[in-house]
Design goal:
Elements lengths: L1 E8 L2 E2 L1 E5 L9 E6 L33 H4 E5 H9 L5 E5 L7 H14 L4 E6 L15 E4 L10 H4 L2 H8 L4 E7 L2 H14 L6 E5 L4 H18 L2 E2 L3 H6 L6
Parallel strand pairs: 4-6, 6-7, 7-8, 8-9, 9-10, 10-11
Antiparallel strand pairs: 1-2, 1-5, 3-4
Organism: Novosphingobium tardum
Keywords: 4Fe-4S, Iron, Iron-sulfur, Lyase, Magnesium, Metal-binding, Queuosine biosynthesis, S-adenosyl-L-methionine
Protein name: 7-carboxy-7-deazaguanine synthase
């Protein structure tokens, strides 16, 4: 069996070491593996090369269509595991795209990794619309849920699924991270927090932006709102350090 991965450049899977830039593990050295494909289409997505291939007309603010052959590579789980195990570190972050679309193959990959590195801490980043496969759930230490608000351009009927949000909110290993562009987005977060009883200590708000300048401008008012409502604030550390680049 195999996994579809994003690429840094044609034929080279996007597997790399860096600091986690967002959420509860921000600042921690981690191994990252970025999977390809997504079931949603955020207009401001900063990894559109994982899903907006030629022929995909879903809206995106840049309007760029990516060549699938150059931006996606398919490898068997053993080959992916070997690349990861060749890197030092005790934390793995699986991101995307939407990783849970490949839940069964991801579970097989994690089984291989834990056989060689039993103490590996695994985080999976997800948009919260796909249930973790039963074989995957015991292998994941932390889910980083990023539900997509109205400004993403996704209809709520696709992006905000009540059963999925309720299940993740009830799981103490799940942390929510909402992308905020305008103060109105924060109001939407407060409504979702109340509806699904998401604890404030597991809820992060983060400014949308692919440049340090934009992130900092939005951080000023967003940090104030987070303080007033008892929510946690997340910066985008990797944007400040490396800009909007692959493999960072």
């Amino acid at each position: 069996m195999s996994l579809a991965l994003a690429t840094v450049r044609a034929g080279e899977p996007e597997i790399f070491t860096s600091l986690q830039g967002e959420g509860p593990s921000a600042g921690r050295p981690s191994i990252f593996v970025r999977l390809s494909r997504c079931n949603l289409a955020c207009e401001w997505c900063d990894t559109a090369y994982t899903w907006r291939f030629s022929g995909d007309n879903r809206p995106h603010r840049d309007g760029v269509a990516f060549d699938r052959a150059a931006n996606q590579v398919v490898l068997d789980e053993a080959a992916v595991a070997a690349l990861i195990l060749d890197m030092p570190g005790d934390r793995l972050v699986v991101t995307g795209g939407e990783p849970l679309l490949q839940g069964t193959a991801l579970a097989r990959l994690l089984d291989l990794l834990h056989a060689h590195r039993p103490a590996l801490h695994v985080e999976v980043e997800t948009n919260g619309t796909v249930a973790p496969h039963p074989s995957l759930r015991p292998l994941v230490d932390q889910f980083n849920i990023s539900p997509k608000l109205a400004h993403s351009g996704n209809p709520a009927s696709l992006a905000l699924l009540p059963e999925r949000l309720a299940d993740f909110a009830a799981d103490a290993c799940s942390f929510f991270k909402f992308v905020i562009a305008e103060p109105a987005d924060f109001d939407e977060v407060l409504r979702l927090q109340a509806e699904y009883a998401i604890p404030g200590e597991r809820l992060f708000v983060m400014p949308e932006g692919t440049s340090s300048e934009v992130v900092r401008l939005r951080s000023v008012w967003l940090a104030d709102l987070a303080c007033r409502h008892g929510l946690r604030f997340s910066d985008r550390l990797h944007i400040h350090l490396y800009g909007d680049t692959r493999g960072t």
